[in-house]
Amino acid sequence: MADWQWQLGILGGSTTAWVLGLALLALWLFELRSIRGESDRRRRSALAALGGIGILAVYLLALQVTLVRETFEEVAGGTGILLDNSRSMTLPGGSGARSDAVRTLIGEWQEDDRVNPVVYLFGSSTRGTIWSDLAESYDPSDDETKIRRALSYVLEKGAEQNLGSLVVITDGADASFRAETLGLGSGVPAIHAVVVGGDDPLDDQAIVSLHADPTAYVGVPAVIRADVRAVGDLQRSELRVQLWHENHLEQETVAVLDKAGRGTVAFEVAPRRTGRALYRLLIPAASNDEVPQNNDRAVLLRVGRERLRALLVAGRPDWDVRFLRDFLKRDGSVDLVSFFILRAAADLTAAPTNELALIPFPTDELFREHLGSFDVVIFQNFDYAPYEMQTYLPRIRDYVQRGGSFVMIGGDRSFAEGRYGGTAIEEILPVKLGAPGVLKGSYRAEVSKELARHPIVALGPDPTLTRRTWRALPPLHGANMVRSVKPEAQVLLQHPRARIHGGARLPILVVGEAGRGRVAAMTTDASWRWRFAADDTTVGSDEYELFWDRMIRWLTRDPLLEPARISTDRDRYGVGADVTVSGRLRDEGYRPMKKVSVELHYQPAVDDARDTVVRTDQDGRLQATLRAPGEPGAYEVVASVEGKEVAREVFLVEESGDELADLEAIPEQLQALAEQTGGRVFLGTDDVPPLSELAATSRRAAGLVSKEPLSNPWFIFLTILLLGATWVLRRRWGRR
Predict the structure, then answer these.
(1) What's the CATH architecture for 308-560?
(2) What number of other Cβ atoms are within 10 A of residue 432's Cβ?
(3) Tens of pLDDT, residues 339-366
(4) Which residues, at least 6 apart from 555, have a Cβ–Cβ distance to it below 8 Å?
(5) 308-560: same fold as 78-175+193-201+665-695?
(6) CA pair distance 734, 736, nearest whole angstrom
(7) Is pLDDT above 80 for 582?
(8) Are 400 and 406 a contacting pair, CB within 8 Å?
(9) H or E segment at 566?
(10) What pLDDT is stored for residue 647 in this prediction?
(11) pTM (global) more than 0.85
């Protein structure tokens, strides 16, 4: 029951009270001054006292003091059970698995039918379950232990259910839980805790967590750090940590542990090729290690190049070459190798080769030895024939089909004018070449309406502004003629008037795919004009750089520019854990894939996993929960629409996962919580009393009680009496 609290009823509150008090104090001081001439000391004291008491009574009466208190009533409260459903509850204890001890305890409680509790399971989420068959159905499998989130959920529900007591059954293996962060309010039930495993510490060595940048670069050292710990008897043993890569032992070190048995080790690795690199950290298991599952953990690095490598081969210097080369050189993310072809191998010279300033084009070195090291190859108005490159064109085709990227930019030495028709290069180009021909005259390229969202040409936040921006750019001059566009290619820019075979508009920019690689055909060599603002607009320059930046990033498959993307809520999971997949799907025109059925499946395939089908919303977004594979390793979740793959994401499955990495029972925070709420803590299940002994009553607010002790008639009468007595005595003793 709460204490009395007082309130002021006077208009203006405490401010008015202070002003009135000071005024009445001044009045009393004036009263004292007026009776200083009284010769009789007793009369003077009596008048001063009566005047002061009367003024005080008037002051208290004017304040309208009210006493208020909140009352509660004790009611029979319900009992709740919050049961840990995480995988750490399956670990061994003193007489079997922790979960077996919980089943035994629940079975004993169920024999006492005086209590019918409300039961919640918690782990990755918190959900209700049925009390009657809990002993048989309890099978902990969640991959997380979230004590605070579970308590907040149940206490909020408990306020509706008038819970008088809540019993939390857990191993307490949640290092992030702090009792003081829970924010307990009034009327909270008594919280009891049964710490399973608290009386039986483990002997265990474990890799608690791994830290590494998800992206690494070829030849650049990357650091993998691991937090390790040892408990029980193994805290006094040597803790060796090994680094494995592709089934080879790469490094080994001995961890230095502090007094709490914790330490950190670090390994430096230098990936040798692009792609994914899977590294395993392993603690050789001791014979008395009770949880060997947490001795082996993995980290997956996505290995790329620190800078994109671009090969630019230009047939001759011109403005288009100059501006593109200047842009690529200024881009800090691009490592540019460029060649201006000023001398062919067949050029006749009277001097020895070693005395010439112009060396022949190094075709063999570039296209036989180093081609695979480039992310994108750009042929800019380049004719291959004078440089004896016929035998290297198939190498460029194979390079693209294996995952490289290629751009051909127009001019009088490019496309059909460069005699690429019928070559291996035409096989990968997104256009088919016909007879040589170059269109003259100026024009403004138009963006295709259905592809205005494509990142290469999306110069505005929406298709309308994009088309307006393209119309405002400076005009282009000239374009190479082509016969047609290949079926799977996309025409992003086209000529406003000129036509090709079949009546389609002449394509200015076409993109597509060849095998696993991407290609682009830019049929004009005048994009450098976009570097300047048009006379009647303010666009230009920035649009030029944005265009070519997006072009290079799209060709090299920057993930941020992919039309469809999915992701998992974590990078690593324990076996059988819940995997939440979310993403946004757009078609090849970057339009949202609205209300489509998406099939999610794993690669490599998992025998016991069914494909999951989910529908996207109006914006092409999706979310689904899958069960993680039952075997450790690196997996990809793949999203397919109508049998066609649209996106994928990689993740790891570990035998332990984060849930089995840090397993020490931590009763301290649960003890603090019990002390705050009047509950009890039990280490282990042996001494836990019947559930009826843990049940309790709960307090329920019954309303407010108020009193106004100074507003009753007796106090008013006493005040009038004091004031009257003071007046009578002053008159009798000759005072005015």
Answers:
(1) 3-Layer(aba) Sandwich (3.40)
(2) 16
(3) 876 554 454 444 454 543 444 567 778 8
(4) 376, 405, 406, 407, 518, 519, 520
(5) yes
(6) 7
(7) yes
(8) yes
(9) strand 565-568
(10) 93
(11) no
Strand partners, 222: 269
CA gap 294, 239 in Å, rounded: 13
Per-chain mean pLDDT for the chain: 85
Element (H, E) at 8: strand 5-8
pLDDT digits (tens, 9 = 90+) for 593-602: 999 999 999 9
Q: What is the mean pLDDT of residues 319-327?
A: 94
What is the C-alpha end-to-end distance of the chain, expressed in Å? 52
Q: Helix, strand, or coil here: 585?
A: coil
Distance between CA atoms of 193 and 674, rounded to whole angstroms?
7
- Residue 212 amino acid letter: A
pLDDT the model gives residue 616: 96
Longest alpha-carbon distance in the chain: 145
CA 353 – CA 355 distance, rounded (Å):
5
Dihedral pair phi/psi, residue 251, rounded to 5° = -150, 160
pLDDT, tens digit, 9 for 90 and up, residues 395-404 = 999 999 999 9
Sheet with 126-129: list strands edge to edge: 126-129, 118-122, 78-84, 163-170, 190-195, 681-683
Tell which CATH architecture fits domain 564-654: Sandwich (2.60)
Q: To 5 degrees, how large is the angle CA 550–CA 556–CA 560?
A: 60
Sequence ranges of the domains in the chain: 5-72+705-732, 78-175+193-201+665-695, 204-304, 308-560, 564-654
Residues 689, 184: Cα–Cα separation, whole Å: 26
CA distances from 68 to 61, 144, 247, 705, 707 (A): 17, 47, 76, 6, 7
CA quadruple 585, 588, 589, 593: dihedral sign: negative
**Cα–Cα nearest to 432, from 503, 381, 482:** 482
- What is the C-alpha separation between 640 and 362, in angstroms, rounded? 44
Note the pLDDT tens digit of each residue in 519-572. Answer: 999 999 999 999 886 555 555 568 999 999 999 999 999 888 999 999 999 888
Rounded-to-integer distance, Cα 657 and Cα 634, Å: 13
pLDDT (tens digit per residue) in 110-167: 988 888 899 999 988 899 999 998 999 999 988 888 899 999 998 887 666 678 899 9
Distance separating alpha carbons of residues 39 and 414, to the nearest angstrom: 127
pLDDT, residue 726, reads 74
Distance from C-alpha of 644 to C-alpha of 471, rounded to nearest angstrom: 36
Burial class (CB in 10 A: 0-12, 13-18, 19+), 36: exposed
List pLDDT tens digits, range 682-715. 988 888 999 988 887 545 555 666 666 666 677 7
- Residue 197 Ramachandran class (φ > 0 left, ψ -120 to 50 alpha, else beta): left
Tell me the CATH number for domain 204-304.
Answer: 2.60.40.10
- Count Cα neighbours of 399 within 13 Å in the Cβ-side half-sphere: 23
Distance of CA 241 to the CA centre of its chain: 30
**Are 87 and 139 in contact, with CB atoms under 8 Å apart?**
no
623's tokens: 């979310």
Angle at 651 between CA 645 and CA 656, to 5 degrees: 145
User: Do the beta carbons of residue 672 and residue 179 sit within 8 Å?
Assistant: yes
CATH homologous superfamily for the domain 78-175+193-201+665-695: von Willebrand factor, type A domain (3.40.50.410)
**697-707 and 65-76 beta bridge pairing:** antiparallel
Quick one: which of 659, 694, 698 has its CA closest to 170?
Answer: 659
